[in-house]
Amino acid sequence: MKRIGMLTSGGDCQALNAAMRGVVKTFINSGEEVEIFGFLAGYKGLIYSNFQMLTGKDFSGILTKGGTILGSSRTPFKTITEPDENGVDKIEAMKHTYHKLGLDCLVILGGNGTHKTANLLRTEGLNIVTLPKTIDNDLWGTDMTFGFQSAVDIATNVIDCIHTTADSHRRVFIVEVMGHKAGWLTLNAGMASGADIILIPEIPYDIKKVVKAIKKRQERGSGFTILAVAEGAISKEDAALSKKEYKKKLEKRTHPSVSYEIAEAIQAEIGMEVRVTVPGHMQRGGSPCPYDRVFASRLGSEAGKLVLKGEYGFMVGYKNREIVKVPLEDVAGKLKTVDPDATIVKEAKMLGICFGD
Ligand code: F6P
User: Does 149-284 carry CATH code 3.40.50.460?
Assistant: First the structure.
């Protein structure tokens, strides 16, 4: 009999439940007896030994359910090696929980920060298998993460809705899309919804070029303009600053986010009404789209297979349309961002989309 711990850590996304269900169904259908310890609220559950014993029934009917049945929380990697407010050594506490319960393996679902901690636990001798979740799609070692396609659907729907009202009122609209420091979500939702201008962190923008693109549309008789702006979008001037200088500048920022800064600059130049829409955490919520249900189920079942075979130390990822296992040490600490020279960017430019560069 195997004893498996499972946890979901970091910002939630769609299809976390679908992925866990995939893992557990694979255990059940293998005929092997498996005990499942569900740690609550991410790594915190492992640190403070807060878990629930789960059975197949707990994973039934959750394929379409958003969020995570285990709950989640952020335990930033930079604080993982620091003791908590009561002096508890978090790494030692997690190892203690693992050994006390006699676990054979931990199945960990998470994004970048989660993978750094997972890899650290691996180096501390724990058996780990991970699954790539995040709407940001910025995890190295996999072409896609689950949650991403669902978030693309939501952000696309938002921009579709904005299109009709922008047209009626002849306004410039900015839709701010999540994605942290990566532009995957904005690029895909922007292209899917026919945005005129797409601004992503990987391609610093020149506000003059953005204004020029809007004016060009006006001259052509297009009464409105839609900008899909990544929450991490950055101007050329700001990109030229050192990390320290930029951080200082952000501390003094009076606008709620970069989109409002851009809106003000555009309004000052063209005198048209500019509106900002921020769908925010809506992009992480609700039911997973059909693609993510299938994708997360496949990844989950492959993770289940690895656990049953005792192959540990891997993330189950997706490369060139194949499910693959990627060593955790290769994944941890690396970010997958949009290559400004990627063909998708070139194609978007050929479609007339302005990136502000
Ligand atoms: O990583 C997912 C994500 O939604 C990012 O796109 C966003 O920057 C961040 O999480 C928001 O974090 P929080 O949920 O802590 O506000």
Answer: yes
Q: Which atom of ligand 1 is nearest to the CA of 284?
A: 4
Which residue in the list 136, 153, 196, 292 is annotated as catalytic? 136
Domains 2-147+288-331 and 149-284 in one fold:
yes
**Token couple for 90:** 């978090």
The whole-angstrom separation of Cα 103 and Cα 101 is: 6
Note the pLDDT tens digit of each residue in 108-160: 999 999 999 999 999 999 999 999 999 999 999 999 999 999 999 999 999 99
Could you tell me the fold of the domain covering 2-147+288-331? Rossmann fold (3.40.50)
Helix (H, G, I), strand (E, B) or coil at 242: coil
Say what the pTM is: 0.97
Closest-CA residue to 270 (of 228, 217, 233): 217
167-192 confidence digits (pLDDT tens): 999 999 999 999 999 999 999 999 99
Q: Which atom of ligand 1 is nearest to the CA of 12?
A: 2
Protein residue whose Cα sits closest to atom 13 of ligand 1: 11
Q: Could you state, in order of their start, the residue ranges of all structural domains in the chain?
A: 2-147+288-331, 149-284
> For residue 281, which atom of ligand 1 is closest to its CA?
4
Q: What is the DSSP letter of 292?
A: H
Best probe residue, ligand 1, of 13, 112, 135, 283 (max atoms within 8 Å of C-beta): 135
**133 CB within 6 A, ligand 1:** no
The sheet carrying 322-327 orders its strands as: 51-54, 34-39, 2-8, 105-110, 128-132, 314-319, 322-327
